[in-house]
Amino acid sequence: MRALFSQKFIKYTDRYLISKTKLVSLKSNHFFHSSQISKENEDTVREITSILTHNNWQFLLESSYLPQKLNPDVIRSVLHQNMAGDPKRLLGFFNWSSHQMGTPQNLNSFSILAIVLCNSNQFAYANWVLERMIEICCPVSAVLDSIVSCCREFNSSQSIHVVFDILINAYKKKGMLHEAASLFLAAKNCEFLPSLVCCNSLLKDLLKCNRMELFWSVYYAMLEAKINPDVYTLTSLISAHCKVGNVREGQRVLLEMEEKGCSPNLVTYNVTIGGLCKAGLVDEALELKKSMTEKGLAPDGYTYSILIDGFCKQKRSREAKFILGEMSNVGLNSDHVVYTALIDGFMKEGDVEEAFRIKDEIVARGKKLNVITCNVIINGLCKVGQTEKAKDLLGEIIAMGIKPDTQTYTSLIEGYSRENNMVKAYGLLVEMKERNLQPTVYSCSAIINGLCRSGDLQQANFVLEKMTEGGLKPNVVIYTTLIKGHVQGGKIEEAIEIFSRMKEKGILPDVFCYNSLIIGLCRAKRMEEARTYMIEMVERRLKPDVYTYGAFISGYSMVGEMLVADAYFREMIGYSIAPNGVVYTTLIDGYCKVGDTEGALLIFRSMLGQGVLADVQTYSVLINGLLRNGKLQEAMHVFAELCEKGLIADVYTYSSLISGFCKQGDIIEAFKLHDEMCQKGIDPNIFTYNALINGLCKSGDMERAKELFDGISEKGLALNGVTYATIIDGYCKSGNVAEAFRLLDEMPLKGIPPDSFVYNALVSGCCKEGNTEKAFSLYQEMMQKGFASTITFNTLIDGFCKSGKLNEANQLVNEMVDKQVIPDHVTFTILIDYLCKAGMMEAAEELFLEMQKRNLMPTIVTYTSLLHGYSRIGDRSKMFSLFEELVAKGIEPDEVAYNMIVDAYYEEGNTEKAFKLWNELLDKGVMQKGDFSNALALLEKMGSQGFTPSLAMCSNVVRGLNEAGCEDKATRVLESMVRFKWISDSTSLSDFSNEYQKDAISQGNQH
């Protein structure tokens, strides 16, 4: 049998175990030789030995001078010389002498007495002696050395096994399992071994106390010492394997037991069944129960109990109830443990009715409910949101004479806290005290958690204060809850104060506590401060986790500092902390917000490459980000990928895509997506319809937009301010201001107050109709409501300027300053444009300079207005310098600016410069309308002046005309080029087209 279990194994070496004890080799003829004792002590020993032969020995000793002569060496010698005497008398003398001396006995005295008592089968007395021996706190090695030496001296090899059994048991009884195991391991090397029964008992206790390293050390030492395991040893071995989650190894041991003839008993099977249930392998556990029955072993109540509990924990309570029926059929009575497991199982599955049926069954069977079962029911009801029913049950159980405990009230407090009913939760805390039940840390924690969730931080702090006054010490969980609550309430300073107070009270924050504070600081954009707490974490040997790094990544992404966010991302990977989907999604969102869609896509691909599954949220963030940056096609590619993976896009993703197509004017594609989402059962929301209405309005299809607008209410959706603002803006831009005002009057009737966007749209509509009086009236109304903004002023100023009301425009500009509404570049551009059109260039120039003094960057529109102004008064030199200025500032000229400057150079007679700029216009693809009216005139003038353009310039002109559909003009230009001998006579339009295609292919290959 031993050979079966002495196969190759990893030796467990506990760093706490003693090293191999080196025993001192003591020769028997010198160990207690009289020469080692002084002459005076010899006389004392002899006299005491003589007196011990009398029954009244204690009286005789106390009547003599001998008590004064006692010392540990004398006692040891007396015990040694009287080993053959009455063991009980020796024990009595030992105790009497201990009281007389007042000093500890010699270690060997304990050993001699224990051996003598064991030799006489006085095991209880021997146990008492060894317990006293342990109490003098000698090292295990010294105790072992003393016992082994004494046994060898007295040739008591048979007794030593019993002594070791009793000594190991004594260590165990005192909770000194480490010493018990150390003694066994050291004794093994002395070839004096405890019995198998003692070993089994030690293994069992080590298992019970979860001292697994010691367990394996003792077990493998048994095998080395050739102590053959029996059914009890192997049952403990199976239990150990199951305890550490290695249930398959436990099954292997059971199988080998059966194969080698060591019959497993009921306990062995129960242990294995329990291990399988704990591992969730309940079907295998049930099969093993059937197997043991077939082998003639009848399952007991415990077998059924662990199976029922196992099935309930796997949310298979119906099957567990069937097992209960089988248990009753075989004549086994079920106890409260079984019923409680079933009730708990059904409660966790949400089957409250079945749980109550089982409760009623308990009562029907004449069994009284106990507080544990009632607590399970109350806790279950609270967790499924039926706290009121749980409170009613509390009243019932009190009426039945069952006394609720702190757990009962804690469950109810947690239930009401989850429902944000803090009045009742707090009332239960008061009721607890009235029933002389002291609130626990857990009940106070539940109250504080609920108060923080409901935002009542002041009351949460009050409960903490009262808790401390009542002698309860808040734990790190309570402080973390408070810190998190204050952080979520935007009270960062208070959170920091709580954190500091916690440390002052000696409660060390854990990773969750640090994370709560770090997350709050990062959300408040106080990243440097958050970093100091992260450093503190590391200094305290706490490892930052994915949530720690996620907070920094989110914080820096939020403020657009993607380089720093990426640095934290790389740092966490460097520390082997795997980013989760939330971290990746945060980075993707951050890159999209700063316009780096390539970076966002790179992170997204990296996420998929690392095996992190992207959910709908991640796809939605990426799609929205791409759309915000005008990347509609890329967004559609990602959307297609989402659909290919079997994920169902949510309403927000569809709505964002619909909005994207509407903004590009592709209404057909937008409605296709709308129809697709409806077919998939995804109901459009108001955001979806707002996007569609906006698209229809922009395309000028107001009839269809109004039809969609009118149908929203029928779909069960409420119109909002954006819906009205969108369609009002559409009517204003389409010239139907009357309908826009009708909708404005309708808004208050629907309970929707008009906002600034609605008023701005109406002001713009009135200005376009030239009705500046109505526009000004709306403006005054906006001022009263606090809606007027820079946009409002700009719209009205533009309206006044276009209506020729410069005084009113100037008055509005002054009022704008008085109202502390800051003018922007649009304000200045409107005024500059008006002044330029009025020929007031000096005033326009002054405004242009003032604009730049205010650090307002002129746009191409501003420069174009000035170019038009100088063109009107014929000041071409200023036009040229202004054009050079805008190019130097990095402003990209548009088609209008190019055409004006080309015309100016042409009129100036600088044909070559005009043609170069015109060619530049073509190269950049700025010209969209194919306006080549100056081309022939330019060519004629260039040819007459002897200027020869490059072939590329010629190609640009001809190809541009041809692609714009002006083939006749392209042919005429081509003829002029041939006439001036700029190109060969044989060149045709198709030659330029083919040459362009070759260039495109060549450039594509280079890339």
Walk me through what this model shows.
InterPro entries: Mito_RNA-Proc/Resp, PPR_rpt, TPR-like_helical_dom_sf. This protein has 1007 residues and is an all-alpha fold. The protein has 57 helices and no strands. Helix 36 (616-628) packs antiparallel against helix 37 and helix 45 (772-785) runs antiparallel to helix 46. The longest helix has 18 residues, at 989-1006.
Q: How far is the first residue's CA from the last residue's CA?
A: 76 Å
CATH architecture of the domain at 1-225: Alpha Horseshoe
What is the strand tally?
Answer: 0
* Secondary-structure-derived class: mainly alpha
Main beta-sheet annotation: none
Please write the CATH class name of the domain at 1-225: Mainly Alpha
- Can you tell me the overall shape? elongated
What layout of secondary structure does this protein have?
Elements: H1 2-5, H2 28-31, H3 39-51, H4 57-62, H5 72-81, H6 87-101, H7 107-119, H8 123-135, H9 140-154, H10 157-173, H11 177-188, H12 196-208, H13 212-224, H14 231-243, H15 247-259, H16 266-278, H17 282-294, H18 301-313, H19 317-329, H20 336-348, H21 352-364, H22 371-383, H23 387-399, H24 406-418, H25 422-434, H26 441-453, H27 457-469, H28 476-488, H29 492-504, H30 511-523, H31 527-539, H32 546-558, H33 562-574, H34 581-593, H35 597-609, H36 616-628, H37 632-644, H38 651-663, H39 667-679, H40 686-698, H41 702-711, H42 721-733, H43 737-749, H44 756-768, H45 772-785, H46 790-802, H47 806-818, H48 825-837, H49 841-853, H50 860-873, H51 876-888, H52 895-908, H53 911-923, H54 935-944, H55 951-963, H56 967-979, H57 989-1006
Helix pairs in contact: 3-5, 5-7, 6-7, 7-8, 7-9, 7-10, 8-10, 9-10, 10-11, 10-12, 11-12, 11-13, 12-13, 12-14, 14-15, 14-16, 15-16, 16-17, 16-18, 17-18, 18-19, 18-20, 19-20, 20-21, 20-22, 21-22, 22-23, 22-24, 23-24, 24-25, 24-26, 25-26, 26-27, 26-28, 27-28, 28-29, 28-30, 29-30, 30-31, 30-32, ...
PPR repeats: 230-264, 265-299, 300-334, 335-369, 370-404, 405-439, 440-474, 475-509, 510-544, 545-579, 580-614, 615-649, 650-684, 685-719, 720-754, 755-789, 790-823, 824-858, 859-893, 894-928
Protein name: Pentacotripeptide-repeat region of PRORP domain-containing protein
Organism: Camellia sinensis var. sinensis
